[in-house]
Amino acid sequence: MRIIIRDTYSEGSVWAAHYIADRIREKAARTSEPFVLGLPTGSTPIATYDELARMVAAGEISFKNVISFNMDEYVGLPESHPESYHSFMFKNLFSRIDEPRENIHILNGNAPDLQAECRAYERAIEEAGGIDLFLGGIGEDGHIAFNEPFSSIYSRTRVVTLTDDTIRVNSRFFGGDESLVPRQALSVGVATVLSAKEVVILAFGPKKARAIRDAVEGGVSHTNTVSALQLHQFGTIVMDELAAGELKVNSYNYFKAVEAAENR
After folding, report:
1. 59 pLDDT band (50/70/90 cuts)?
2. CB atoms within 10 A of CB 230
3. Is the pLDDT of residue 260 over 80?
4. Can you give the residue range of the structural domain that contains 225?
5. What CATH code is carried by the domain that includes residue 7?
6. Domain count, the chain
7. Catalytic positions, please?
8. Which band of pLDDT confidence, cut at 50, 70 and 90, is reported for residue 166?
9. How far apart are CA 77 and CA 45, in angstroms?
């Protein structure tokens, strides 16, 4: 597992955006096949999306040959709802970049057959050639996408029931009213994420520090689904100093030294 520690949320977000852009350019230089990108929602990736949008506007990168798959969507929330993940993605990224509309994939939480929708999503990822890079965030309890604690590391895209903690945290997007937060969602599974050729996880702020400590220094556990990243050959966690706050001093120093050596 590779760990990138930056001083601030802004610096970590910019690092992630430039890393994604570099990966898109690298693939474009060797093949005409599209770059397949997995994307998260939530407050964590907003600054990364801002930087990617800036880079597109400046002509530094293009998403014309990118296919994207989002991690999740609420069940039963209209796509037009301001807190649906469809709305979130178009507001924060898709309306600001040049990715073709037909290349954008987001789970349909209003599909008449939710199980069929999940199976079709997995097929679409496979037909696109698999995901080149999956970007993600983590919850305060260490979950990735909506893979709550005790989700199997072999899980695939499916209907999930949200925990009380997730509903409480997400209620901030619904005016603080927990009763307005949907109780279910469609989510890619842990195995869906781990099947990507590369995974980059963003973690910022002190509320993520314990989850980061357990994911990095603890064992692989279904109580902390991001810990499964330990099993990935090319897994990276980008964090700020606050999120790194509960790492052991020796661990922190090791990761800093490794990155310094790589940049020489």
Report:
1. very high
2. 14
3. yes
4. 2-262
5. 3.40.50.1360
6. 1
7. 72, 141, 143, 148
8. confident
9. 21
To which residue do tokens 């260490």 refer?
142
Task: Inform me whether the pLDDT recorded for 264 exceeds 80.
Answer: no
Query: Could you tell me if 189 and 157 are in contact, meaning their C-beta atoms sit under 8 angstroms apart?
Result: yes
Please check whether residue 61 is in contact with residue 24, taking contact to mean a CB–CB distance below 8 angstroms. Answer: yes
CB atoms within 10 A of CB 127: 9
Token digits for 164?
Answer: 């009380």
